[in-house]
Amino acid sequence: MTPDLYLIRNAIQARTRIGFPDLHSPLRLFNGFLEGFPELQIDLFADTLLVTNYAKDPSSLKAFLPTLQTTLLEIFPASRCIILKERYASQIEQRNGRVLFGLTPANWVPENGVKYTLNLTLNQDSSFYLDTRNLRFWLTSHANGWKVLNTFAYTGSLGIACLAGGASLVVQTDRSRRFLELAERSRELNQFPREKHKVQPGEFFTVTSSYRQEQETFDCVIVDPPYFSISPKGSVKAQFHYQQILNKVRPLVRDDGYLIAINNSLYLSGVDYLKALEEISADGFVKLEEIIPIPEDITGYAETVKGLPPSDPTPFNHSTKIAVLKIKRKYSETFHFDLSAIF
């Protein structure tokens, strides 16, 4: 099956019509999974277009790619590079991405006045998650003076957003040192003070255990686990182990601090996710403060959406489900977990 160019053009026009005049900011141009062709996704990162081929047989789109390239360069004539990622290719170089057009891809993007380092061929994804844009805005507007722990930090964009908001200290931790190197480069790019940014490679279970033993606390802890990860210290499967993960970090949040709980499980419904949060809130020390919506360029628009996710994310608006939790310490007055306000 060949993608319909009308679907792609219509999706791009929808985004440019309603408030994305600055096309240097990172943007999802086409979410084929929801907008009519699940095998294709197109993102814009400054002067670089990123095309991701999700077809189980990547060669099935080979004949279409020259037409797509011509169309994209016609719409975005200032583009200097197009990268193609083939998610199910046999070679890692093809999965991580190769240059289809041009030479050097963009290595940073601006968003909300903050600069974020990119490496578009570092991994199978883009190294910068577009779906957490509104959370970065929220962190920048709330983090003044905060001490923050960003777990599963990947390339650290959420932690960098905290620094942009005036955080006093951000600790970024992830298994991969090479991912965290991008976080440090983002700090340098924005000229944030070095002493406010700590990069800590390590396993989630080891790092959080150490902080618990030291009775360390933070104003905000961010938890954004991958859908599945395994290590000698423990396994993470976000759909099934999420409560366990959150309970590892709850003791690290100070009284009246925040726990940012992000769940990316495509097959976990929004109602089931809320039930999981309600269960960890049964003791009265956790309160659902806010749900952060996913931007419309990720979810699609009324005139562009053609499909539905495999599981209903309601009351969230996407399978990436972001909850802001307020934490009370044991010596404080308890909360009552009330879902009525969001239904």
Description:
This protein has 343 residues and is an alpha/beta fold. The chain has two domains: 5-106, Transcription Regulator spoIIAA; 125-342, Vaccinia Virus protein VP39 (Rossmann fold, 3-Layer(aba) Sandwich). It contains eleven helices and 16 strands. The strands form four sheets. Strands 10-9-8-11-14-16-15 form a seven-stranded mixed β-sheet, with helices on both faces. Helix 5 (133-142) packs parallel to helix 6 (157-164). The longest helix is centred in the middle third of the chain and has 14 residues, at 177-190.
CATH structural class of the largest domain: Alpha Beta
> Any low-confidence stretches, pLDDT <50, length ≥5?
none
Structural Rg: 20 Å
Structural class: alpha/beta
* % residues in beta strands: 25-35%
Q: Strands of the largest sheet, in order across it?
A: 10-9-8-11-14-16-15
Spatial separation of the terminal alpha carbons: 39 Å
Order of helices and strands: HEHEEHEHEEEHEHEHEHEEEHEHEHE
Going by CATH, what is the homologous superfamily of the largest domain?
Answer: Vaccinia Virus protein VP39
Q: What is the domain total for the residues? A: 2
Q: Report the CATH architecture of the largest domain.
A: 3-Layer(aba) Sandwich
Total beta strands: 16
Number of helices: 11
Instruction: Name the overall outline.
Output: globular
Q: At the third CATH level, what is the topology name of the largest domain?
A: Rossmann fold
Percent helix: 25-40%
What profile does the largest beta sheet have? 7 strands, mixed
Mean pLDDT over all positions:
91
Oligomer designation = single chain
